[in-house]
Amino acid sequence: MLDEPRALGIHSPHQLYGAVVPYPFVKTKAITHGLVSARAARLSGWSSAFTRSVRDAVLPGHTAFDFDDARQSATRLLQFGPVRLKDPLGDGGRGQTVVTEIAELDAFLEKFPFEKMASHGLVLETNLRRVTTRSVGLRECPGRC
């Protein structure tokens, strides 16, 4: 978060290996998908422009910050097959569930904490089978590498 580096005496990108974000949800997978509609719930700082810019690089899906929006998203996506639900705070494949019908989504949502939905959301996307995941990143160490 923006205030953390300053508290540690970090004042330049050259002093940091990592990233600094303005809102907690930005450091999660929630930022990779757009909202299900223009009226969907959103957090302060949400960027529709960013989700549009990465749309062609991610699977079809949505991020929901509200249970009704999650249900609307799943209803649309289930027309094309199973839907993968992702906890934006999950990593390494953890926090993911595949649903094939609305009843399964409803059962999942009954157990999903309201506070987590409201603060970090839920990612819903088309499910792929037999997938290989590769991490891609950028590391800069000006004058040090």
How would you characterize the overall build of this protein?
- The chain is α+β, with helices and mostly antiparallel strands and 145 residues long.
- It has one domain (25-126): 2-Layer Sandwich (Dna Ligase, domain 1), CATH 3.30.1490.
- Helices cover 27% and strands 12% of the residues.
- The chain contains 5 helices and 4 strands; from the N terminus they run ααβαββααβ.
- Helix 3 (67-77) packs antiparallel against helix 4.
- The longest helix has 11 residues, at 67-77.
- It is globular, with a radius of gyration of 17 Å.
- The relative contact order is 0.18.
The H/E string reads HHEHEEHHE
Strand content: 5-15%
Number of domains: 1
Task: Spell out the CATH superfamily.
Answer: ATP-grasp fold, A domain
Strand order of the largest sheet: 1-4-2-3
At the first level of CATH, what is the class? Alpha Beta
DSSP summary, beta strand count: 4
Specify the biggest β-sheet. Answer: 4 strands, antiparallel
Treating each run of at least 4 consecutive H or I residues as one helix, how many helices?
5
Runs in which pLDDT lies below 50 for 5 or more consecutive residues are none
CATH architecture: 2-Layer Sandwich
**Radius of gyration from CA coordinates:** 17 Å
Provide the residue-averaged pLDDT: 90
- By CATH, the topology is Dna Ligase, domain 1
The amount of helix comes to 25-40%
Features:
5 helices; four-stranded antiparallel beta sheet; single chain; Dna Ligase, domain 1; 145 residues; alpha+beta; globular; 12% strand
Explain the layout of strands and helices.
Blueprint: H1 3-7, H2 48-54, E1 61-64, H3 67-77, E2 83-86, E3 96-99, H4 102-111, H5 114-119, E4 122-126
Helix pairs in contact: 3-4
